Design the sequence.
């Protein structure tokens, strides 16, 4: 086995450390988000899977199979820690999300596709930005930046594949780290899924960063 392969191989211990980093980061992100949108967000304990890139969509499909269609927001991030985040909501949840930004004096319109799109993108931008930034902060990555979020509406879960999300998720030769959690917006009874996918190129750095994180304690 080549040295580069040894350096980037994630052990169960590495995955456990990453789950703990995510747990701390998401807790901080949840507190920040509560101040931004004035609502309590509950995040389940995160899970980490190391798998081939071409298997990503199968795992995401497995986690969301109880829903017929999803609204998905995809956002890339770059820095020492780089990859893609996907936020997925049941399509029926969009009305509850719109009400997050509802002005009590001006009730939102029930059927407004443009408002629905803008709200999904804004919620995605806020949630993904907060969670990714907190993970990067804990791992001493001060270089993280983001692409604009991209909305993929009405994704049929049974047809979920790399082809209808992004071709980069169909590469059989690359590995990825899938970090996932389920979150609940309590007052609005909205449930969603957050998937953070670390790129193959950042694995070596991520492994070292996790070791450095543990060395602080």
Sequence:
């Amino acid at each position: 086995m080549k040295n580069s392969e040894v350096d980037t191989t994630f052990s169960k211990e590495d995955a456990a450390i990453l789950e703990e980093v995510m747990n701390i980061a998401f807790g901080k992100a949840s507190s920040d988000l509560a101040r931004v949108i004035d609502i309590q967000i509950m995040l389940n304990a995160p899970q980490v899977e190391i798998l081939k890139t071409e298997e990503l969509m199968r795992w995401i499909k497995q986690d969301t199979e109880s829903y017929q269609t999803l609204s998905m927001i995809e956002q890339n991030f770059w820095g020492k820690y780089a990859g893609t985040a996907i936020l997925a909501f049941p399509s029926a949840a969009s009305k509850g999300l719109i009400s997050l930004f509802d002005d009590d004096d001006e009730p939102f319109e029930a059927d407004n596709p443009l408002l629905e799109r803008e709200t999904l993108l804004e919620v995605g931008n806020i949630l993904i930005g907060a969670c990714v930034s907190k993970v990067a902060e804990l791992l001493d990555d001060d270089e993280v930046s983001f692409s604009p979020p991209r909305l993929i509406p009405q994704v049929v879960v049974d047809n979920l594949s790399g082809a209808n999300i992004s071709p980069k998720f169909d590469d059989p030769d690359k590995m990825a780290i899938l970090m996932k959690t389920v979150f609940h917006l309590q007052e609005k009874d909205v449930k969603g899924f957050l998937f953070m996918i670390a790129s193959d190129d950042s694995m070596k750095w991520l492994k070292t960063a996790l070791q450095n994180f543990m060395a602080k304690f």
